[in-house]
Amino acid sequence: MRHEETGGWRGWRQASEEALYGPGGFYRRPEGPAGHFRTSVHASPLFARAVARLLCRVDEALGRPGELAFVDMGAGRGELVTGVLDALPADVASRARGYAVELAGPPAGPDPRVTWCAEPPSGAVGLLFANEWLDNVPLDVAEVDEAGVPRLVLVREDGTERLGEPVSGEDAAWLRSWWPLDGGPAGEAGEADGVVPVGLRAEIGRTRDAAWARAVASLGRGLAVAVDYAHRADARPPFGTLTGFREGRETRPVPDGSCDITAHVALDACALPGAARLTQRAALRALGVGGGRPPLSLASTDPAAYVRALADAGAAGELTAPGGLGDFGWLLQPVGIEVPGELLPPG
């Protein structure tokens, strides 16, 4: 159906799909995502080095296959996949192959070690890593009306919203299971008087669950990891998290291709059987990224090393900071292997 036939009103899923990935969409702009927001990948090379160490753990669990794949979902301009390949020890690097999964295609002069593709390769053996990918998988938004009914939120290209039809079918079932709009957490009763607050919102994550399941299914053997802004069923934000980013600043989400459109991820809903979940802080510390300052004695014995170690400590602190990147969720999904023991949450 053409936009003019609906007065330009669409659900947020369709509007975001076109604004982000359509012709002239945000993710097809020449400056790439790094021109508008900063992820862990852009914060420090320590992140890519930690992921390279994880790939080595997966390599060991797989029995050192002849080709070891690193699949970078939502690869942007290839910063992570290139950084990971650069950080591998020689014996692993000689068998490693990078795959950059990105709808926008490769930048000029792509790395010959990396294959660019629109979908993850089928049957890859290795590590599939989705850093801040799921938050950009478009989804619909629901809002409670004055009668207490969750309705689909419709939006125009200028960001103006109105309520549409009641949420129904699989979307309604997803809300009941994972984000019930009754003011209480999933699996618990709503307010005692039966009145649901007007304006409560939820982001219907069913499309993300399906996208993650497809990504995991593409692996032949190995480990799939999703890293993202996340929330749990017992602490969903009452008015949602949909927002925009432009030139490094958070802004009103407008589906016209001028800004990123993102929402936090219900990683607990995405998780498949056998998954493990932990914070980025815990994951990176398990992979050797700490925030401790180097000993002051190093400043006198090797001043250059001290300066480098001090810089690494500051970067590690940012990557693991409470209230910031350290609170990101990591979802680890094994395929035919065990999750590396050091990354299993306590208990």
From TrEMBL:
**Top-level taxon of the source organism:** Bacteria
Entry-linked InterPro entries: NDUFAF7, NDUFAF7_sf, SAM-dependent_MTases_sf
The alphabetical list of record keywords is:
Methyltransferase, Transferase
| MF GO annotations | protein-arginine omega-N symmetric methyltransferase activity
> Which GO biological process categories is it annotated with?
methylation
Q: Which PANTHER family match?
A: PROTEIN ARGININE METHYLTRANSFERASE NDUFAF7, MITOCHONDRIAL
Q: What's the protein here called?
A: SAM-dependent methyltransferase, MidA family
Please give the organism.
Streptomyces minutiscleroticus
